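Reminder: ligand-aware prediction takes two inputs, not one.
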Amino acid sequence: MVNKFYKFIIEKSNGRFIREQEIADKRNSIKANVDSPPRIELMLQKGVKENEANRKKLISGILHNFPNFIMAFKGVNKSIVTLNQNPLLPKKRATEAFIKNFEQYAFSLGISAIGYTTIQPKLIFKDKAVLYRNVIVITKEMDKSILEKGPNNKSFKLVWQTYDSLGKIANILTEYLRKQGYGAQSGPAMSGLSIYPLLGEQASLGAIGKHGLLISPKYGARQRIAVIYTSLDCNQTFENPHLWIKEFCNSCNKCIRNCPSQAIYQQRLKQSNGLETSIDSDKCLESFINNHGCSICITECPFSLTDYDKLKTAFLRKN
Ligand code: SF4
Ligand code: SF4
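Here is what comes back for the chain with iron/sulfur cluster:
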């Protein structure tokens, strides 16, 4: 059963990779460059592919959350197979009233925050591409009371539920934009084509903590991110007011102390492409598989537990 299901997922993933390649083959798509990092492919990582015990554990965790996993997977598929529905000559400009209505609609669907930015090729994963330069970033909160009691089956289920529901919202908003004459490509929460936390930071929705996740003022690290690449030019150019969080991290290190796999580096590593990394993904994967998706760094982060303004006031008083 486990091996059959693994084979099924690999086959489906291969179909997705072929479609992603079709985007990269399009003449006008924005392509990854030599500085782009590879995407983590959960099912194809060494620790899963070559380790049967790990594979069994991961698959059994997924089977436990089968409906949400399949729906999230379908959402990813939909984001790719609908790309031919884009207008040939997409609109670019929008009135303030249009943006306001769009945001109201997005919040009515259940998002927690929305922001705007543009994408640089190095933020697109190696060998991948996206159709539009403008990016709408949306987030969805994950329930604090469930995460706090985790990691357990319930907290793992919440992760898959959020992937599923946020992916659906990204697809609905993409369809909405296309109907209004804009070009749009949905980037669901699962299996993204670009580095979402960095796009969230660029869109001023928060700042990236040492655990590599976006920390937002309302929900700390308790959220998932999805994006919409679009022809709609709505880039905002104000300064991100949350970057002080990076300083805070240097005197906190709570996620590092509590990470069961010692997967978080003490110092963020600056890579040759200028991007920073703070996580050893192989070590993190081990805990993800063996401990219901882990997420300990999310729940231990003070910003997930305590009021943002209180933390900021206390931090500024000390520094
Ligand atoms: S998810 Fe778990 S293993 Fe991975 S970095 Fe966070 S605490 Fe560490
Ligand atoms: S736990 Fe502390 S060090 Fe880690 S990301 Fe959160 S604030 Fe930063």
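The two ends are 57 Å apart (CA to CA). The longest helix spans residues 153-179. We will return to this case in the review session.
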